[in-house]
Amino acid sequence: MAETVYFETVAVGDDIPVLAKGPMTTAHIIRWSAAMENWHKIHYDWRYATEHDGLPDVLINGSWKQHVLAQVLVDWVGETGWLWKMNFQYRGMNIPGDTLTAWGRVTGRSQRGRYGVIELDIGLKDQNGKEGSPGTAVIVLPLRDGPPVPYPFHPAALH
Amino acid sequence: MAVDELVDHITPDVRAVIGARSDWLEAPHPVEASEVRRFFQALMDPNPRFWDTEHAAGTRYGAVVAPPGFPVHAFRRPADDSTDSLAAAGDPDFDGVSRAMRVGLPKLPIALSGILNGGYEYEFFSYPKVGDRIQCRSAYLDIYQKQGKAGPMVLVVIEDEYRTADGRPLLKSLNTMIMR
């Protein structure tokens, strides 16, 4: 089990451990589409994707990419911190052959009540370093001498 | 100026559904262990909190849970839905997805065929456990038009609130869908 990340140990500018997935293939894409029961042809019908919709290839699901962003954050803070907020835009398309690396960098930190609140920039870069899903996140961490972050989480705990 | 730029898709009929909010609707079945397994295996996220009952019993969740964003995908085709969602799959123009934005919200009377997911803002409160019955309430928070490079785009901002049937908040999301 990962060690507890305490608020005091986190500094603005810190990079959290990255999380890489890939190279992604059509098999990975259809495995996700089937698990989701999402039958959008742009994810598995090459002719439809390229000829009908004019895409460069079938696409890696945006619905899959969002969970990779959540995972890199939850993996970092384990069972003692809380991924409170996360937002991102789908700006780039990703295709088979891409390896995607989720990353996060601390941009702000503040103590609120008896807890620490960490702000981060986040994203999902391809193997060429191109950012396709930029966003931000807010994590709640325990203080060294503080109580555990409540679960279920309630924002009122920060007051 | 292209003719397209003059088209105002935000008609009175569209304006009338801005603010529309659905009732709380329940997913067709409770969260299933194998459904969660397919989910985390496809995500390639094998954390024991998703499958190891002994490990999970010692965590703050008290039992195995699904990944944070799982509720967003919980509204699957009900067993008693006799309308095959792939009935039109032989049509070369059929893209495989329903035009309905959300189960409980009215379809939008907008004559744009392309649809893209613009992104999400999430706020997480708890994770669903196997056996939880997930409920969702959705609203069209805003619908507005912007001029894109290839013509007009309509941006649809949808708020979704998820909770368990026994009232435990799961997550809240703001999703921007782009029609063009």
TrEMBL record, chain A:
- What InterPro entries does the entry give? HotDog_dom_sf
Q: What is this protein called?
A: Acyl dehydratase
Source organism of the structure: Ancylobacter aquaticus
Phylogenetic placement of the source organism: Bacteria, Pseudomonadati, Pseudomonadota, Alphaproteobacteria, Hyphomicrobiales
UniProtKB/TrEMBL annotation, chain B:
Q: Which Pfam families match?
A: FAS1_DH_region
Q: Which residues form a coiled coil?
A: none
InterPro entries assigned: FAS1-like_DH_region, HotDog_dom_sf
Q: Which domain of life is it from?
A: Bacteria
Q: Where is the FAS1-like dehydratase domain?
A: 26-170
Q: Mind telling me what this protein is named?
A: MaoC dehydratase-like protein
- Species: Ancylobacter aquaticus
